Amino acid sequence: MKLILLGPPGAGKGTQAKMLTERYRIPQISTGDILRAAVKEGTPMGVKAKGYMDAGGLVPDEVVVGIVRERLQQSDCQNGFILDGFPRTVAQADALNSTLADLDKNLDAVISLEVDPEALVERLTGRRTCRDCGRGFHVTFDPPAVAGKCDACQGELIQRDDDKEETIRKRLEVYRAQTEPLVAYYRSAGLLSAIDGMQDIQVVKNKILAVLAAK
Fold first, then answer.
1. Which residues belong to the active site?
2. pTM of the predicted model, to two decimals?
3. What CATH number is associated with residue 147?
């Protein structure tokens, strides 16, 4: 099974990807993770990426695509993969198509998790993380027993900078501008299935599995 998960920050892509990896025994490929791994391992594309990162610049598409290509050629991708966070733009999607064609692979599905932006802001701004042990909570959906204190170690609960409202709204705006066009792109290719990501996690999982079972 070879698929892409689309959706804005906080839509639940990572959660669903982890469950799908267990179901299909295929890797979840997050561009952030493989970029860091490629740099650490010193792969040809990792060396190129490090040069841009050390200079404080953005890693260009051609290098990101090259790192994805390196990852897709590894043995654990033989039976499929889940791309999470890539492609981000139509240009990256075009490059991915070329890469997959070169590797004699075809996408089976693109799942788009649809969520209400204001509900996303509430979901993300409510997250709290233990300063000491890293355990996560949510002030509304998963509150600690004692406000501001971790249930596990009694450490202080903090709000990460990337969970603050101003930051979240900027991230959502970037998503709308850059990544939302991919919905139309993959719909026109007959690959897209849109699923309401505001439902219960298990309900979303079952709907994704139903889509994939029909492929």
1. 13, 88, 127, 160, 171
2. 0.81
3. 3.40.50.300
